[in-house]
């Protein structure tokens, strides 16, 4: 089936008031970014919908395949066009129905007639097209309320446009419409899901990862790089800040009692994250913590960790069940990478009996015997910054 254009519906954006244009502009820019490899795409943004067109049929099919990952789109429909000749209209309707799985489905025809000089009125055109479709598809059943297939026909002054598919989009808000935050990306199942959920609310992300060689391997780092790259597939560049954390972790092990060492580790990670956040101009920090899941995620532990910063900490998974988090990880494609058996710097130094209810004053007391500030500053300055999706290097660049 040759499609003329794609009709995009905004969904939640339609509830916006005077600032709606800003959200639509973000969506348009994100679509341009995501489809930069499709040079013929043209975007026409209107108040309540958007049209994507291309003279290249392969580009239209690429849009249909990849648009479900673009946040800010509630749903979209491929649109076919034809002349206002009745035979042409009926032939196009049959082609659309043939492109669908219509066996034993319920069906209706919906007509909108903008051209009032068209010889058939709305009901007459609806009846003619529906009768012809039913003759060619005897297993179809007419149902006027909530049919499985709704063949929509719009008669305009220049042509007739038809659609029958409503393909779900990713929903949420366009990326960039709600600022930037820094995701603490561990390499486990939870943090990529937390990042995805903030992306869905229109928040652009940088990510930060704590790497402790030789205790953590290069494969562990590559795993996190793969996760950052997977998050970039949702429509925006993701920068990954890799923090050298070995010296800090060894200092923690030497100075802090084992049962609260994990709390101090998290607190120093949060301090470092806050410094990087301020440097890149992000407004919040995102974590994959879920209340009560492990010892460092009890209410008492989170309170002790939060005490090192006044920056907003976003924990979108805080009340979620682990199995629900796994389901989302599978859905967004990060699960198989997250379960690869390469340990991060938290798991290798996990104490045998960590405090589940650490007292903030005691943690601060133990930390007071060691000045971590110099190590923190050095770690921030020596971080490695990677950008995803990674650009392919030009093997002939050295010759230019």
Automatic annotation (TrEMBL):
<dbReference type="InterPro" id="IPR020536">
    <property type="entry name" value="ThiI_AANH"/>
</dbReference>
<feature type="binding site">
    <location>
        <begin position="209"/>
        <end position="210"/>
    </location>
    <ligand>
        <name>ATP</name>
    </ligand>
</feature>
<dbReference type="InterPro" id="IPR014729">
    <property type="entry name" value="Rossmann-like_a/b/a_fold"/>
</dbReference>
<dbReference type="Pfam" id="PF02926">
    <property type="entry name" value="THUMP"/>
</dbReference>
<keyword id="KW-0694">RNA-binding</keyword>
<dbReference type="GO" id="GO:0002937">
    <property type="term" value="P:tRNA 4-thiouridine biosynthesis"/>
</dbReference>
<dbReference type="Pfam" id="PF22025">
    <property type="entry name" value="ThiI_fer"/>
</dbReference>
<comment type="similarity">
    <text>Belongs to the ThiI family.</text>
</comment>
<keyword id="KW-0784">Thiamine biosynthesis</keyword>
<keyword id="KW-0067">ATP-binding</keyword>
<dbReference type="GO" id="GO:0000049">
    <property type="term" value="F:tRNA binding"/>
</dbReference>
<dbReference type="GO" id="GO:0005829">
    <property type="term" value="C:cytosol"/>
</dbReference>
<dbReference type="GO" id="GO:0004810">
    <property type="term" value="F:CCA tRNA nucleotidyltransferase activity"/>
</dbReference>
<feature type="binding site">
    <location>
        <position position="266"/>
    </location>
    <ligand>
        <name>ATP</name>
    </ligand>
</feature>
<keyword id="KW-0963">Cytoplasm</keyword>
<dbReference type="InterPro" id="IPR004114">
    <property type="entry name" value="THUMP_dom"/>
</dbReference>
<feature type="domain" description="THUMP">
    <location>
        <begin position="61"/>
        <end position="166"/>
    </location>
</feature>
<dbReference type="GO" id="GO:0052837">
    <property type="term" value="P:thiazole biosynthetic process"/>
</dbReference>
<dbReference type="InterPro" id="IPR049961">
    <property type="entry name" value="ThiI_N"/>
</dbReference>
<protein>
    <recommendedName>
        <fullName>Probable tRNA sulfurtransferase</fullName>
        <ecNumber>2.8.1.4</ecNumber>
    </recommendedName>
</protein>
<feature type="binding site">
    <location>
        <position position="288"/>
    </location>
    <ligand>
        <name>ATP</name>
    </ligand>
</feature>
<keyword id="KW-0547">Nucleotide-binding</keyword>
<dbReference type="InterPro" id="IPR050102">
    <property type="entry name" value="tRNA_sulfurtransferase_ThiI"/>
</dbReference>
<keyword id="KW-0820">tRNA-binding</keyword>
<comment type="pathway">
    <text>Cofactor biosynthesis; thiamine diphosphate biosynthesis.</text>
</comment>
<dbReference type="GO" id="GO:0009228">
    <property type="term" value="P:thiamine biosynthetic process"/>
</dbReference>
<feature type="binding site">
    <location>
        <begin position="184"/>
        <end position="185"/>
    </location>
    <ligand>
        <name>ATP</name>
    </ligand>
</feature>
<dbReference type="GO" id="GO:0005524">
    <property type="term" value="F:ATP binding"/>
</dbReference>
<dbReference type="InterPro" id="IPR054173">
    <property type="entry name" value="ThiI_fer"/>
</dbReference>
<comment type="function">
    <text>Catalyzes the ATP-dependent transfer of a sulfur to tRNA to produce 4-thiouridine in position 8 of tRNAs, which functions as a near-UV photosensor. Also catalyzes the transfer of sulfur to the sulfur carrier protein ThiS, forming ThiS-thiocarboxylate. This is a step in the synthesis of thiazole, in the thiamine biosynthesis pathway. The sulfur is donated as persulfide by IscS.</text>
</comment>
<dbReference type="GO" id="GO:0140741">
    <property type="term" value="F:tRNA-uracil-4 sulfurtransferase activity"/>
</dbReference>
<dbReference type="InterPro" id="IPR049962">
    <property type="entry name" value="THUMP_ThiI"/>
</dbReference>
<dbReference type="InterPro" id="IPR003720">
    <property type="entry name" value="tRNA_STrfase"/>
</dbReference>
<dbReference type="Pfam" id="PF02568">
    <property type="entry name" value="ThiI"/>
</dbReference>
<dbReference type="GO" id="GO:0009229">
    <property type="term" value="P:thiamine diphosphate biosynthetic process"/>
</dbReference>
<keyword id="KW-0808">Transferase</keyword>
<feature type="binding site">
    <location>
        <position position="297"/>
    </location>
    <ligand>
        <name>ATP</name>
    </ligand>
</feature>
């Amino acid at each position: 089936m040759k499609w003329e254009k794609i009709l995009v519906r905004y969904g939640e954006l339609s509830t916006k008031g005077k600032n709606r244009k800003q959200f639509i502009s973000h969506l348009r820019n994100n679509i341009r970014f995501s489809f930069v490899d499709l040079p013929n795409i043209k975007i026409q943004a209107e108040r309540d919908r958007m049209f994507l067109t291309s003279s290249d049929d392969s580009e239209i099919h690429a849009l249909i395949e990849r648009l479900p990952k673009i946040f800010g789109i509630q749903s979209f429909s491929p649109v076919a066009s034809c002349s206002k000749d009745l035979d042409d209209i009926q032939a196009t309707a049959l082609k659309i129905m043939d492109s669908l799985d219509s066996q034993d489905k319920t069906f209706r025809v919906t007509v909108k007639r903008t051209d009032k000089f068209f010889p058939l009125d709305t009901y007459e055109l609806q009846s003619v097209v529906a009768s012809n479709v039913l003759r060619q598809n005897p297993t179809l059943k007419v149902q006027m309320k909530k049919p499985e297939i709704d063949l929509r026909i719009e008669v305009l002054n220049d042509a007739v446009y038809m659609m029958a598919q409503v393909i779900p989009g990713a929903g949420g808000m366009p990326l960039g419409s709600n600022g930037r935050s820094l995701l603490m990306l561990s390499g486990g199942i939870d943090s990529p899901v937390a990042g995805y959920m903030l992306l869905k609310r229109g928040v652009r992300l940088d990510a930060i990862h704590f790497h402790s060689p030789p205790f953590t391997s290069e494969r562990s780092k590559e795993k996190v790089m793969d996760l950052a790259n997977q998050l970039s597939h949702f429509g925006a560049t993701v920068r990954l800040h890799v923090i050298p954390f070995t010296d800090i972790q060894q200092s923690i092990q030497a100075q802090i009692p084992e049962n609260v060492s994990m709390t101090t580790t998290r607190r120093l990670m949060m301090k470092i994250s806050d410094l990087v956040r301020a440097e890149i101009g992000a407004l919040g920090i995102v974590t994959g913590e879920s209340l009560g899941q492990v010892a460092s995620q009890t209410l008492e532990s989170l309170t002790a960790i939060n005490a090192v910063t006044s920056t907003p900490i976003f924990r979108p998974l805080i009340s979620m069940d682990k199995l629900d988090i796994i389901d989302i990880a599978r859905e967004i494609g990060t699960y198989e990478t997250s379960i690869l058996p390469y340990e991060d710097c938290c798991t290798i130094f996990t104490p045998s009996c960590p405090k589940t209810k650490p007292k903030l004053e005691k943690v601060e007391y133990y930390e007071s015997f060691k000045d971590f500030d110099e190590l923190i500053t050095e770690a921030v300055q020596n971080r490695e910054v990677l950008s995803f999706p990674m650009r392919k290097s030009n093997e002939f660049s050295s010759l230019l």
